[in-house]
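Recall from the previous lesson that a structure prediction takes nothing but the amino acid sequence as input. Here we apply that procedure to dTDP-4-dehydrorhamnose reductase from Kribbella solani. The sequence below is the only information supplied.
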Amino acid sequence: MVRWLVTGSGGRLGQELVPLLPAANTLALRRHELDVTDRSAVLDAVAGQDIVVHLAAWVNADRAETEPAAAMAVNVAGAANVAYACQVHKARMIHLSSDYVFDGKATEPYAEDAPVRPISVYGKGKAQAERVVMEQLPRSGVILRTAWLFGAYSNNFVTTMQQLAEVRDQVDVVVDQIGQPTWTRDLAERIVEVARIDAPAGIYHATNAGSASRFELARTVFAAIGQDPARVRPTTSDRFQGAARPAYSVLSHAGWQRAGLPPMRHWRTALAAAMPAIRTLRPPRARH
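The prediction returns the following tokens.
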């Protein structure tokens, strides 16, 4: 039976993925159990594994701007270590990347082979990691770019909107960021499928179909929990500080044809399916 290693298994995606894998043949390592910047430790962890799903990452884009060395160590050196270990032990690597590798200046969905032009420390790290993985594993590396993850585990935009609906009369949300909300459950299932069919090496865009602004997504969440969507007011990104975000990061899904898989379902359908679990497992904070 195939043996799996999942790095960063305690994160929002890892908690969706691990239950889908055979427990007896899965080594799920959380951040404190495997330091991906330690090459020796990574080599030991990968030994004997057939498929390595590399989820361990520095995901706080804002903190990456103020702690770039630490962010790069995890996102670039960590990915390089895992890729090297997979090369040594002849394991398949599935690496998670991000829409932040693009600058957001496009007017149509980014193709898988579109030039990367990151505009933040986080995005630069993810772009460098992609390059390292494909250089190390040109025949066995799979990169899944994803975006705007939501789900029942860990805080995310959808859970935040649900919480704010309970404690604020109005919520200001940006209208000038367009992307693809993606359910972690759908992404986890796609990872399993990619491994099952032994998809060709390369880059794929693993996001739910369709697109939305943050503002549209927020209003959809409010409606889903029985709150008035008009309480969400439009604003623009220049009102907020932090890492630069791509204004437009809609990704094309043409690459799935190469793997013989359909694109993932529309984000609205996915959100409707996810909301019962999100409301059960991530209840809104009580009023103060």
